[in-house]
Design brief:
The chain is built from nine helices and no strands. It is mainly alpha-helical. The longest helix is centred in the C-terminal third of the chain and has 23 residues. It starts with a helix and ends with a helix.
């Protein structure tokens, strides 16, 4: 089976109506499809939350280990993606307690491929250098700015802007209301804009 066929098969399985039952039975094909479908997203979200590549991969492994171990308890009340990211969130909380304060985000480029649309993004882009210079310096500057953001705000931002999770999914994962999530996203976007503008004032 080609990679494209495998991806298509995984996507079909994770959206099948009997997925929850198959997960509870610890059906190897269904569990493998979930891992194939969401491993990349989990690693990217962990990176966006401030972990190094190695740390993100370790947390992802722990996330899916827990997923497999708790498969018999999955009732299917929420989408399996929401359940996976809920496990990830708890693993990130555990990981942060053991991390040094000088964590950095090396692969933040993808977070800012878009400058935020009107559907929940910045109303205006940060003022500063032109697009070419922005592209060259974005990783370092944005990494510095996001590093100062509270962990929950940073993760909410990554789940929404990078992974494209819905408001309902993120609220369930972070155990917050829609109003609180809106406040978190508003604050982290403002923090990033203000931080970037401050950095670029003298350029």
């Amino acid at each position: 089976m080609s990679d494209a066929d495998a991806t298509e098969n995984a996507a079909r399985l994770v959206d099948s109506p009997d997925l929850a039952e198959r997960i509870r039975r610890q059906d190897r094909e269904a569990i493998g499809a979930v891992v194939d479908a969401y491993l990349g997203q989990v690693i990217r979200a962990a990176r966006g939350a401030g972990l190094t590549r190695q740390q993100a991969e370790e947390v992802a492994q722990e996330t899916f280990t827990t997923f497999i171990e708790s498969a018999a308890r999955f009732e299917g009340r929420s989408h399996v993606r929401t359940w996976i990211f809920g496990i990830l969130y708890r693993k990130l909380q555990e990981a942060r307690r053991g991390l040094a304060k000088d964590r950095r985000m090396d692969d933040i480029d993808d977070v800012f491929e878009s400058r935020f649309s009107a559907t929940g993004s910045w109303s205006r882009p940060p003022t500063g250098p032109g697009d070419a210079l922005f592209a060259r310096e974005a990783r370092r500057e944005i990494g510095d700015c996001l590093e100062a953001a509270p962990d929950n705000q940073r993760l909410a931002f990554v789940l929404r802007e990078v992974e494209g999770l819905t408001t309902a999914e993120i609220c369930k994962i972070l155990d917050v209301s829609t109003t609180i999530l809106g406040v978190m996203l508003h604050r982290v976007r403002n923090r990033l804009r203000d931080c970037l503008e401050t950095k670029w004032e003298g350029t």
